[in-house]
Amino acid sequence: MSGPIVALKGVTKTYQQGAIEVHALRGLDLEVQPGEFTALSGPSGSGKSTALNLIGGLDTPTAGGVHVDGHDLGALSRKALSDLRRDRIGFVFQAYNLVPVLTAAENAEMVLALQGVPEKERRQRVVALLDEVGLGGMADRRPDELSGGQQQRVAIARAIASEPAVVLADEPTANVDSATAEMLLDLMQKLNAERGVTFLFSTHDPRVMARAGRIVHLVDGRVERDERRDG
What we know:
alpha/beta
């Protein structure tokens, strides 16, 4: 498609906490183009994770519009939104979110299974993907047999298995040590460069920001600064 993969237009998100109104986002405008490696940064409470949740269709804005891959999320039925999340949005979470009773391969192929890809084909694709993310020979290991960094690699393989339009990564380096964080970032940069995978991070990790081609600084639910560093 031409145009942005992600577009937020005048997005406001307000939560009610008892008698208090919390303004997580205040008229946020943001566009992410295909192939970008972009970080949303800012202090706790700046709206980073809220923005990612809205882009991922996991929450709805109080006002404004969210468009992903050319679709207005607010205009989609529940089934259409679920299908869009499954087919066009990859997720990488801080806590990995792997299913403990499933192997690395079974976790990585979950989206493909939901898409109805035949078992033999999806297993071939996933075994090749696990090899690409540095987990060759570990397809049959369960999460408790993998390190934190290895589990996050499985999560990255799961996120890109369906070749989504964008991968949303919420603090993906938060639960791993420095060396593992650098390896994960090497991997995601490689996928970005070689496969053209679009990544949008929520992070306060300077290691992520050092790699990003663009950093969107959020403060109090607004863009304070949009810093482009590619090229």
